[in-house]
């Protein structure tokens, strides 16, 4: 049977979640030879405010590119968590930044509270790459795309000169997720 | 939505695919004015066009943008502009000019919520009737609507081909979802693409009639500067292109403008049928809502309901006869669109009371969820079948 | 429709009756009173006085008056 | 005699313009300027908007484009950008260029795109029967200014300069030779070039203001003309009611299409 | 067409009657840009408005003209602009703004031949669908069409009344024939005219909701400067008038905008029936072609054919239900209009195949001659009845 | 402390503008200027177009009108002509006023209609994400000028002057007090008054051009500011890259609505 | 039975035929208490070229304001005669300026060749009033409106200060038509 | 959400955490290093040094900082 996996990445403008979504989609679509779509929602101004980026991954054509039954939710801020936590699939995965998102009412979901931003700051040295750290964590927890594919996608997509930094961030995320087991 | 091809897989948005399709079709002049959610088309082309020896120009407004692409097209260049509702409204006068003077060009409208400034970042299909009737005076128009990133590429190419073939502006009606969704595609290589170029005159300057009443109804079009000096005017004109107030000449022009589209409707009209063979309920949709509809069809089939989808790729001219024909086989229509039922009205007209026409609409900026459609299908399957 | 006035002089003035709209501009410009109006159209009255200064031709808005200075041809 | 016919569509004659309308004199000067420069007919594209002046494009044997009201500058910009070898000449009126078309006017000037603009200034909307224009002098009557025009009038040439034009000149139909010379210079200038041609409209402007026939209005233009060289030494009071003629600016600055060519040249291989 | 009244007889044109009607309705601000065949409206008003303490302003273009009348209307003034096809196209963006922000104003379009510059001095009814759909986004619109000089006066007054009553722009669709024909009229005196003024708020500033979802669906409208400070935006907004992206608020606004017209369609829709009692053939027409049609009805009646005329004074919202009802009594429709059948399409939609709909059209700048209609009537009377 | 709250719709706060955006500083200056002049809130009408700057009207407790892109000037003209007692203040951006709205801008200036225009010049289209504007300096990057802006930039203030404005000044957000003073003077002037407010856009302009955060861009504005009095003595080369601030013109000439009142006064009895 | 009388006035732009039509209509409508409409056709430019002004007079409502079955045609130039001579009612009246219109193929019409412009020039002293001279002739020949009504309409409509001149022109036309009998 | 720092001095500085966007402008303008950034928001670090020059308040784009000079009230 076919599968459809829905990921929603949320946070605030400037946290790079659109890029993260695009990388996730490319990893799945180009390197893992699945199908994938990525879409985002804008505030009224396309700048600032809560931001949402959605990735659908499937082995079939993806007709409806919006998340309606979410398998995995990432939230980097409390505001975005509150705003975008609906539409979760029962038993789905919720990954939040443990510092920014304090208030998680978890019933029926697998909730992971991870120090995403802290990891970016302390282990990679730049808060800006928290999005990629998050990708590492997502890859580790969900296994929806291969590590290899994600690495390729990151390398291809991030600004020239920052590849190493970002790959490191990915690795940090990945390892953090491994420590969970 | 990712039909394989020689190329390698890419994940790109509809707006990017539109830019790529235009370049593939030979577009070498783009003039535009930024507006959400179409701006990325301009942004991609501002970087790429010089690499193709083409010209990108950001104009002072949309009035100027369409003026510039009509002017540039007259030199023999394939041209395009892209905008959204408010800008499309501003282009209406010159859109009519392009129709009247028969200048090929492509106008992209990535639809967002209206009316007015409305919902600048949210999707809609509210400009479908405007595409048909936005400019003053009676006229024919061609408008296409893609439902995927790959199809955006394809229909952009097709828009140029139709514009060139029929010497007319062609409107590409995208919507915010299609414009902004990133999707896996394999873009075709150059030799996989059919590109049509306008017919140019071959005879002598003296014999050249730029608005000739030919059998095909489409006169040959000379490039400015190629030796065929002629006159172009938005006034009613005769076959030589000069203004006339003579009823007989005017009728000849008006009829030809009408016929070049209406006589060729089969060539222009294009649609897709999905699970229609045994359908009792027919959904009609286009653009991004056709994705929701197709999804809903699958779900309904899983529920054992015989439902199919007619998906319009050509919005104008309208597929009324095709719809009429299908109406003989199905029991009812459900028209799904992100507006109050603009195309549903046309379906009702085409069906002329033979079978009922129902609507699924949404105008609040939220996309239509497949479940919303499924619900309607179920409800009607119970009551009507 | 074309009135051509030829004289033995080297100047020839041609006025197109079809195009002349009788605006009197040529008459006004002519420094030597060569031209007059007759029944709403310009007309050569005194070709002999013409010096082929071309002012009339230069300023006739309707391309209706042509001055040929044969000495220059 | 000058042989105008080779540049004209004489089968379309007589001209639609009224008796005594100055537009035909501008047309003549324009044709002579083109002839003087020896331009190939196929290399000339004339683009006009809507208005009496803008009907000019129907009478000349070039690539001619009669567009919509106020938008000629934008069509011309498209032509020039797409085919820079063409000499693109814009024919427009005071209303066409500076009322409805004001934005395109200043932006074409800003880009300093290589267009030659012949702006027929007759102080009125001629084609629609005499409504007030941004150039109607204060106090003069118009069908929509029955109590006299109230607003400050545009200094058309000044505006083009402020916006970035590299050649700006004004002449009037009373002096066809000067007009011809300025037009020729304007065409030669590589950049946005404006020739403001003062032309009488006896029908829609002269009659209502009792200025007499076209011929009388041309006499007035002759009387009121002041060369720029002289005007510079005159006070605003002395210049009241005068028409300053001359070349106001003739400079070289970067031209839009040429600048773009540099980008193309830099990136074309990269495709 | 010269219904007697107290006043004295005058011979004036439709354009003059429009100006007079506007003044009678209380219009005190006009902004416009000249264009044939509407310019006389501006010309008359430029002379008359100062006498009424009002303001006439010639703007730099049509975009500016409609902007100015919307701005002026917000101060509590009744405002109008007048134009023709090309100018009407340029007004489309701000027409949608007036719909969205619910600012009353009247836009006159004296129709001439299109598309594009077309036939500037010749009549047409080619902008009827544009009036409905010219601006982007889904919306409702009111459009009226007078058929005589006197009715131009009356419908101009009515246009203002509807604009004020429903807080919405109203389009007056004239045509060149009505605009320019000189006709004998008795204009009503002030006390014979009903004038409606917008409802203004009476409560406190704090309570005032400029976009309140009232039962009537029409919120009270405060004058700028009267103490009710509020915000007006073309973005989707909530009841307070401030922008929102919330689907529930958007739906509320969109539904109200729709309902204030659709709920009141009976009040807005207005038409005239002529010899319809025993008609077997029904002609439907409007504007100047309704004159030709009425003439033709008389001639046909002389020929013993039972034909009548339904003459629309309100074009939009469309009288579909009324047409449906009449369709039950007559055998066929003939829709007469100076375009390719724009309203005929709507009649076909309304009739939904119950009885046949035929068309008499003309698009070459010549008016439709009554004999042309008579011929069609005779032909159909022979074949169909 | 200054009590801004009485003029604000604080329930709509925080402002939508990005961190470090200068628009809030202009807003503050504007509010103080209005307070300084003691204008009644009911007597103030603010009209804006579309863009980041234009969102200002949503935050101030006056009669506020957020119109369509480029057309604020025309709505404001309607308001002023119909209700001359209102103080009409136009809030607009460089794109809004001088790209799509350029025609209305020069015509409002031509009429010298009593509007106070606060033009937020951030050299970019902020709202739509950083496309090139008519004021983007040559060579700077924008999302639609990936190889650097190519065209000559408008001198916005100069253009208003050439068109007929009676008060024209420029200030930047680095000096909020000067901005406030100019705005107050502009409101006091009876005629078309322009204050060009230089404001940083770190998000759509600064980032792409590596100009740092808003705070850095404000430092740059401080560094580059040259008072008009001093600038007059400088050569064009010396002025390269500088931002001249000051009052460029402050004259009285006939104002549109007042002139029209004369016509009304003359004819009103005649009805 | 009701009547409908159709008049077409033709000539060239500037000859004042629109004004003449308007006066004729006002005479009928206001002073003779009939119904009347006047309409005109414009060239593409509303200025110059052949000009046409049509007046319909009836004792009933006038639905169709255009001439289709002309009772009386006036032509002041050959061009306008050629262009506008169609649609004549059999037996209708044709009045032309005898100097300007040389070529009249008359079959079945009452043709009057009158020195209209000459009368204006010689008897009134101004070519400009040829339109009013023509009105006098029309009144005299057709009797469709009363002399009184036309005089009133002329007085009310012509520019202030020119009333006398115009009334004289009317009289001249009237007398010229009387001399026909 | 509002941090009010009161000291015995005549100056009081109020910073709204909800409105402050952390743009650092106030810190940059302050001539006396009164303000610092902490976790992305402005904060008063040395109120004693404040001269109530108002530069920070004048230039905070987000109305987030209010300086009360009680000596002037
Ligand atoms: C959009 C639009 N608005 C208005 C008009 C009507 N119109 C035609 S020409 C004209 C003005 C002409 O004035 P100008 O440009 O000075 O030319 P002129 O006739 O004086 O030579 C106007 C208002 C139009 N054709 N299109
Ligand atoms: C007719 C129309 N065209 C385009 C747009 C899209 N648009 C919105 S704001 C804007 C430019 C804003 O730039 P500016 O005026 O400089 O304001 P800023 O955002 O920089 O303050 C554009 C192009 C629109 N809303 N309407
Ligand atoms: S050429 Fe000179 S002298 Fe001769 S007729 Fe013409 S104007 Fe007179
Ligand atoms: S200038 Fe030309 S048109 Fe005028 S009168 Fe002389 S010849 Fe005739
Ligand atoms: S109306 Fe004026 S500008 Fe137009 S042709 Fe006649 S005289 Fe010339
Ligand atoms: S995008 Fe630029 S102008 Fe707009 S709010 Fe952000 S910083 Fe300010
Ligand atoms: S008032 Fe002056 S000294 Fe005090 S914190 Fe603000 S900037 Fe610093
Ligand atoms: S200036 Fe204002 S918004 Fe910026 S850091 Fe300081 S308090 Fe916060
Ligand atoms: Mg003019
Ligand atoms: Mg900006």
List the helices and strands and how they pair.
The complex is a heterooctamer, with 2 copies of chain A (181 residues), 2 copies of chain B (385 residues), 2 copies of chain C (73 residues) and 2 copies of chain D (271 residues).
Chain B: E1 9-13, H1 14-25, E2 27-32, H2 39-48, E3 55-58, H3 62-73, E4 78-83, H4 85-90, H5 92-101, E5 105-113, E6 119-123, H6 128-133, E7 142-144, H7 149-166, E8 169-175, H8 176-180, E9 182-186, E10 231-233, H9 247-262, H10 265-268, E11 271-274, E12 281-285, H11 288-302, E13 307-312, E14 314-316, H12 320-327, E15 332-337, H13 342-351, E16 357-361, H14 370-384
Parallel strand pairs in B: 2-3, 2-4, 4-5, 5-8, 7-8, 12-13, 12-15, 15-16
Antiparallel strand pairs in B: 1-9, 5-6, 7-14, 11-13
Helix pairs in contact in B: 1-2, 1-7, 3-5, 11-14, 12-13
Chain C: E1 2-5, E2 11-16, H1 25-29, E3 35-38, E4 41-44, H2 55-59, E5 65-69
Antiparallel strand pairs in C: 1-2, 2-5, 3-4
Chain D: H1 23-37, E1 44-48, E2 63-66, H2 72-82, E3 87-93, H3 94-98, H4 102-111, E4 115-121, E5 124-125, E6 131-132, H5 156-163, E7 167-172, H6 176-188, E8 193-198, H7 202-206, H8 214-224, E9 225-227, H9 228-231, H10 236-239, E10 243-250, H11 256-267
Parallel strand pairs in D: 1-2, 1-3, 3-4, 4-8, 7-8, 9-10
Antiparallel strand pairs in D: 5-6, 7-10
Helix pairs in contact in D: 1-6, 4-5
Structure characterization notes:
- The complex is a heterooctamer, with two copies of chain A (181 residues), two copies of chain B (385 residues), two copies of chain C (73 residues) and two copies of chain D (271 residues).
- Chain A is α/β, with parallel strands linked by helices.
- Chain A has one domain (4-178): Pyruvate-ferredoxin Oxidoreductase, domain 3 (3-Layer(aba) Sandwich), CATH 3.40.920.10.
- Chain A has helices at 17-31, 78-84, 116-124, 130-142, 147-157, 163-178, and strands spanning 4-12, 35-41, 50-58, 70-75, 88-97, 110-114.
- Chain A is globular.
- Chain A starts with a strand and ends with a helix.
- Chain C is α+β, with helices and mostly antiparallel strands.
- In chain C, the strands form two sheets. Chain C has a three-stranded antiparallel β-sheet with strand order 1-2-5, with no helix packed on it. A two-stranded antiparallel ribbon of chain C has the order 3-4.
- In chain C, a hairpin with a 2-residue loop joins strand 3 and strand 4 (41-44).
- The longest helix of chain C has 5 residues, at 25-29.
- By secondary structure, chain D is an alpha/beta fold.
- Chain D has helices at 23-37, 72-82, 94-98, 102-111, 156-163, 176-188, 202-206, 214-224, 228-231, 236-239, 256-267, and strands at 44-48, 63-66, 87-93, 115-121, 124-125, 131-132, 167-172, 193-198, 225-227, 243-250.
- Chain D is globular.
- The N and C termini of chain D lie far apart (55 Å).
- Chains in contact: A-B, A-F, B-D, B-E, B-F, C-D, D-E, D-F, D-G, E-F, E-G, F-H.
- Strand 2 (35-41) of chain A pairs antiparallel with strand 9 (182-186) of chain B.
- The site of one iron/sulfur cluster has 13 residues of chain C, from helix 1.
